[in-house]
């Protein structure tokens, strides 16, 4: 009898314990869901992302959208895309996803297959997308304080357009992301033709140069299982440009960079070359132009650690890139100068330093350090050069890091974005007594019909 009562007591205790555990679990789950609900709905919304260009907007109410269900779907998308701390959540998600299995040493994103009809290498024609509209792949707007001692002004950091649509896809090889470049023989011939027109119109008194800067795949794709021959397209296009230039001097950046591929001449997480790569490019240009050039040892080296650039976004937030960030290194010249910034009709805005401070929150935009990216036209007057030479750089974003290396090479340096300038280029060159004209852009831009149209547009614009 006593045993039976003890057994009943034990069963009753176990039942109470089980019910208490269920109650505690239920309370914990309810509190967790309530906390998540409060965080999801009531915490401050994210208004801009370090990685994504545009966040979802709260939908505009219409009766049609309400009936179709699109209105509530839009609200759901808005709440999900603007959750407080969204960038951190995306980083955690990509890191967790990387734990699902062994990550392939070679990963593909977009459409990495060769386009049909490529004239280069073993293919027979191509279609590089129009680059004149860069809004699809522009960086986020941000407002950052300029890194300078002579001003405390705050300027708007304009969106920095990517130099090309990523139409041919991206390959991650090891820890390096690279765009695949297939080129366009017809377009690079047109590029050379348009530069020849500048030379013909400017005459013998002005030297004109072509600096087409290869993409990283020209040097680092050789170990790819599927795309090891893609580098040939760059070489073929560069040779085509050189053969079709008439009076325009070719700056051979490809071979200038070739001995330095073991150095950090291209970012692994961004689509640009680095400050060091630009130094070697500027050195080759100075040699071609026959002007003095300062050794890298005379510059002050500045380092921003933890840079994860544009490729992170275009590889679906790759954990490989996130876990292997670049150091963003730029070199500050020792020579003194005055840098002035202008709008695209060359109306003066302000004097300021060539280097802009980009906040930690906007670290994916660090390439905007150079001249504030593509936000302004610039004029740099050197205090350490008096050779009578004046340079204008017509460029895409690859040309932004060049000017700081040329203070001892030219008295004045004008930097103008091909895609945005609104004045007649020939008249501007003549009115400002410019002696040297450098077209500096990535291979994608030279092979782009859109950028080529802009080169011609600013030659003939009235």
What does this molecule look like?
- It is elongated and about 105 Å long.
- Mean pLDDT is 81; it is low at 114-167.
- With 462 residues, the protein is of the alpha/beta class.
- It has two domains: 1-40; 135-460, no CATH class.
- It is built from 14 helices and 15 strands.
- The chain has helices at 2-42, 63-68, 70-81, 86-97, 185-202, 217-220, 231-244, 253-257, 275-289, 310-314, 319-322, 425-431, 443-446, 449-460; strands spanning 106-109, 142-145, 154-157, 170-173, 176-179, 207-213, 249-250, 300-307, 326-332, 337-342, 348-351, 377-382, 390-395, 412-417, 436-442.
- The strands form four sheets. Strands 7-6-15-13-14-12-10-11 form an eight-stranded mixed sheet, with helices on both faces. A three-stranded antiparallel sheet has the order 1-4-5.
- 34% of the residues lie in helices and 17% in strands.
- The longest helix has 41 residues, at 2-42.
- A hairpin with a 2-residue loop joins strand 4 (170-173) and strand 5.
């Amino acid at each position: 009898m006593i045993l039976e009562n003890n057994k009943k007591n034990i069963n009753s205790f176990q039942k109470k314990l089980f019910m208490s555990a269920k109650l505690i679990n239920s309370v914990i789950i309810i509190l967790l869901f309530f906390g998540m609900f409060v965080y999801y709905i009531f915490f401050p919304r994210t208004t801009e992302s370090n990685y994504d260009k545009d966040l979802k907007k709260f939908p505009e109410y219409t009766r049609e959208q309400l009936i179709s269900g699109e209105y509530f779907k839009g609200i759901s998308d808005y709440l999900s895309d603007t959750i407080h701390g969204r960038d951190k959540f995306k980083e955690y998600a990509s890191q967790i996803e990387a734990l699902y299995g062994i990550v392939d040493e070679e990963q593909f994103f977009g459409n990495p297959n060769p386009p049909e009809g490529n004239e280069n290498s073993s293919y027979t024609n191509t279609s590089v997308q129009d680059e004149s509209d860069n809004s699809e792949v522009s960086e986020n707007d941000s407002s950052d304080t300029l890194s300078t001692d002579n001003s405390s002004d705050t300027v708007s950091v304009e969106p920095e357009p990517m130099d090309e649509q990523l139409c041919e896809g991206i390959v991650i090889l090891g820890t390096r992301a690279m765009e695949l470049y297939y080129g366009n023989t017809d377009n690079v011939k047109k590029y050379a033709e348009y530069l020849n027109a500048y030379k013909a119109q400017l005459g013998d008194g002005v030297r004109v140069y072509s600096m087409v800067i290869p993409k990283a795949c020209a040097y680092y794709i050789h170990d790819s299982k599927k795309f090891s021959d893609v580098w040939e397209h760059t070489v073929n296009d560069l040779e085509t440009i050189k053969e079709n230039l008439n009076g325009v001097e070719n700056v051979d950046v490809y071979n200038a960079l070739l001995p330095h591929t073991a150095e950090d001449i291209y970012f692994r997480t961004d689509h640009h070359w680095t400050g060091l790569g630009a130094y070697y490019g500027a050195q080759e240009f100075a040699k071609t132009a026959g002007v003095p050039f300062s050794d890298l040892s005379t510059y002050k080296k500045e380092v921003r650690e933890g840079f994860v650039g544009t490729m992170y976004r275009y590889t679906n937030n790759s954990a490989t890139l996130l876990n292997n960030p670049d150091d963003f290194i730029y070199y500050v010249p020792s020579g003194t100068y005055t840098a002035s910034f202008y709008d695209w009709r060359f109306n003066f805005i302000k004097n300021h330093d060539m280097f802009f401070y980009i906040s930690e929150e906007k670290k994916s935009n660090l390439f905007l350090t150079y001249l504030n990216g593509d936000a302004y036209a610039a004029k740099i007057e050197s205090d350490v050069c008096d050779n009578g030479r004046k340079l204008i750089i017509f460029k895409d974003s690859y040309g932004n890091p060049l000017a700081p290396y040329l203070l001892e090479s030219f008295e004045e340096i004008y930097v103008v974005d091909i895609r945005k300038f609104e004045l007649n280029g020939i008249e501007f060159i003549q009115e400002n007594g410019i002696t040297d004209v450098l077209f500096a852009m990535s291979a994608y831009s030279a092979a782009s019909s859109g950028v080529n149209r802009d080169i011609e547009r600013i030659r003939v614009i009235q």
